[in-house]
Design a protein that fits this description.
Number of strands: 6
Radius of gyration: 18 Å
Number of domains: 1
Distance between the termini: 68 Å
Bound molecules: zinc ion
Helix content: 25-40%
Structural class: alpha+beta
Number of helices: 2
Order of helices and strands: HEEEEEEH
Shape: elongated
Length: 107
Protein backbone atom coordinates (compact mmCIF):
# COMPACT_ATOMS: atom_id res chain seq x y z
CA UNK A 1 0.00 0.00 0.00
CA UNK A 2 1.43 3.32 -1.06
CA UNK A 3 0.98 6.41 1.06
CA UNK A 4 2.21 8.50 -1.86
CA UNK A 5 -0.55 7.71 -4.35
CA UNK A 6 -0.86 10.73 -6.59
CA UNK A 7 -4.11 11.54 -8.31
CA UNK A 8 -3.82 13.65 -11.43
CA UNK A 9 -6.71 15.89 -12.40
CA UNK A 10 -7.24 16.21 -16.16
CA UNK A 11 -9.35 18.51 -18.32
CA UNK A 12 -12.20 16.52 -19.93
CA UNK A 13 -10.46 16.74 -23.34
CA UNK A 14 -7.17 15.23 -22.14
CA UNK A 15 -6.37 11.81 -23.60
CA UNK A 16 -2.96 11.30 -21.97
CA UNK A 17 -2.70 8.13 -19.87
CA UNK A 18 -2.29 8.35 -16.12
CA UNK A 19 1.07 6.57 -16.35
CA UNK A 20 2.36 9.19 -18.80
CA UNK A 21 1.23 11.91 -16.41
CA UNK A 22 3.02 10.19 -13.53
CA UNK A 23 6.14 10.13 -15.71
CA UNK A 24 5.53 13.84 -16.41
CA UNK A 25 5.73 14.55 -12.69
CA UNK A 26 9.23 13.09 -12.53
CA UNK A 27 10.46 14.56 -15.81
CA UNK A 28 8.77 17.95 -15.84
CA UNK A 29 9.44 19.48 -12.41
CA UNK A 30 6.25 18.20 -10.82
CA UNK A 31 3.96 19.38 -13.57
CA UNK A 32 1.85 17.41 -16.02
CA UNK A 33 1.37 18.07 -19.74
CA UNK A 34 -2.22 17.61 -20.89
CA UNK A 35 -2.91 16.91 -24.52
CA UNK A 36 -5.98 15.95 -26.53
CA UNK A 37 -6.26 13.53 -29.36
CA UNK A 38 -6.37 15.45 -32.60
CA UNK A 39 -9.41 17.63 -33.09
CA UNK A 40 -10.41 18.54 -36.59
CA UNK A 41 -8.42 17.58 -39.60
CA UNK A 42 -7.98 20.37 -42.15
CA UNK A 43 -6.16 19.25 -45.25
CA UNK A 44 -2.94 17.80 -43.93
CA UNK A 45 -3.12 19.77 -40.70
CA UNK A 46 -4.23 18.26 -37.41
CA UNK A 47 -5.08 20.34 -34.38
CA UNK A 48 -5.15 19.37 -30.75
CA UNK A 49 -5.29 21.07 -27.34
CA UNK A 50 -2.33 21.41 -25.00
CA UNK A 51 -1.88 22.65 -21.44
CA UNK A 52 0.62 22.44 -18.59
CA UNK A 53 -0.41 22.36 -14.96
CA UNK A 54 -0.06 20.98 -11.49
CA UNK A 55 -1.52 17.54 -10.69
CA UNK A 56 -4.40 19.15 -8.76
CA UNK A 57 -5.70 20.80 -11.92
CA UNK A 58 -4.28 24.32 -11.85
CA UNK A 59 -3.29 25.12 -15.43
CA UNK A 60 -0.67 27.76 -16.07
CA UNK A 61 0.21 29.51 -19.31
CA UNK A 62 3.58 28.33 -20.58
CA UNK A 63 4.58 31.97 -21.11
CA UNK A 64 2.81 35.32 -20.58
CA UNK A 65 1.54 35.50 -24.17
CA UNK A 66 -0.13 32.11 -23.89
CA UNK A 67 -3.59 31.12 -22.69
CA UNK A 68 -3.81 28.37 -20.03
CA UNK A 69 -5.02 26.04 -22.79
CA UNK A 70 -3.47 26.45 -26.22
CA UNK A 71 -4.33 25.02 -29.61
CA UNK A 72 -1.52 22.97 -31.09
CA UNK A 73 -0.95 22.44 -34.79
CA UNK A 74 0.34 19.15 -36.13
CA UNK A 75 3.85 20.58 -36.42
CA UNK A 76 3.86 21.35 -32.69
CA UNK A 77 3.26 25.07 -33.08
CA UNK A 78 1.15 26.46 -30.22
CA UNK A 79 -1.60 28.85 -31.30
CA UNK A 80 -3.52 31.12 -28.92
CA UNK A 81 -7.26 30.29 -28.97
CA UNK A 82 -8.03 33.95 -29.81
CA UNK A 83 -5.81 33.73 -32.90
CA UNK A 84 -7.36 30.39 -33.82
CA UNK A 85 -10.83 31.96 -33.54
CA UNK A 86 -9.84 34.90 -35.77
CA UNK A 87 -8.47 32.46 -38.31
CA UNK A 88 -11.62 30.31 -38.15
CA UNK A 89 -13.92 33.34 -38.54
CA UNK A 90 -11.90 34.57 -41.53
CA UNK A 91 -12.21 31.14 -43.14
CA UNK A 92 -15.98 31.02 -42.52
CA UNK A 93 -16.34 34.53 -43.95
CA UNK A 94 -14.43 33.48 -47.05
CA UNK A 95 -16.60 30.37 -47.44
CA UNK A 96 -19.76 32.48 -47.14
CA UNK A 97 -18.50 34.86 -49.84
CA UNK A 98 -17.56 31.94 -52.08
CA UNK A 99 -21.12 30.66 -51.79
CA UNK A 100 -22.55 34.10 -52.45
CA UNK A 101 -24.17 34.31 -49.04
CA UNK A 102 -25.04 37.80 -47.86
CA UNK A 103 -23.64 38.97 -44.60
CA UNK A 104 -26.20 40.06 -42.02
CA UNK A 105 -25.26 43.69 -42.06
CA UNK A 106 -28.43 45.35 -43.37
CA UNK A 107 -31.22 45.04 -40.88
ZN1 LIG B 1 -4.19 15.13 -18.57
Amino acid sequence: MSAMAVRVWCPDWCTVTEQTHLDDLRNNDGEVIHSSADFGHVDSEDYALSAIGSPDGVLRPEDPTHAPVMCMAGNGELIHPDDMERHARALLDMVARARGEQKERQR
